[in-house]
Design brief:
The protein is α+β, with helices and mostly antiparallel strands and 136 residues long. Helix content is 29%, strand content 22%. Helix 3 packs antiparallel against helix 4. The chain is globular, with a radius of gyration of 14 Å.
């Protein structure tokens, strides 16, 4: 890991590299990238399915990586993310990836790479099928 680069720069590079298969294998449009205050968002939407990430500039935590199913009803249930948002790390049956999010910078490259691998292994969510996801 390049310890000189801030976490958000490492996360941005890793997300664009590891999730490029969305365009080549699944026909998602080119990633949209934008700053909103201190958050960097990378997203791509195909039909009702949106790949969405949020990287926090002044935080060393792992980025938020998920899929939003816009065809589902939206309810926030007193949470930050709506019920139609699915964390990619919830595809991991061991729970290890979720623990990596708490350690942030130390595991950010591994976390992003593993999330990409999980999505490649279980791409049903890209068709709107969410049965493989554990809800918290």
């Amino acid at each position: 890991m390049d310890t000189l680069k801030p976490t958000w720069k490492v996360s941005k590079k890793e997300i664009l590299t590891n999730f490029s298969f969305l365009q080549s294998d699944f026909g998602f449009p080119k990633f949209k990238k934008k700053w909103i205050k201190d958050e960097y968002n990378i997203s791509s939407k195909k039909g009702n399915i949106e790949f969405s990430t949020t990287i926090f500039k002044h935080d060393s935590s792992a980025p938020v990586i998920g899929i939003i199913n816009h065809s589902e009803p939206v309810d926030f249930n007193h949470e930050i993310y709506p019920t139609s948002f699915y964390w990619i790390h919830n595809l991991d049956e061991t729970g290890g990836l979720k623990m990596m999010t708490e350690n942030g910078r130390d595991f950010v490259e591994i976390y992003i790479s593993e999330c990409a691998d999980l999505l490649k292994e279980k791409p049903k969510i890209l068709s709107g099928i969410t049965t493989d996801f554990k809800k918290e």
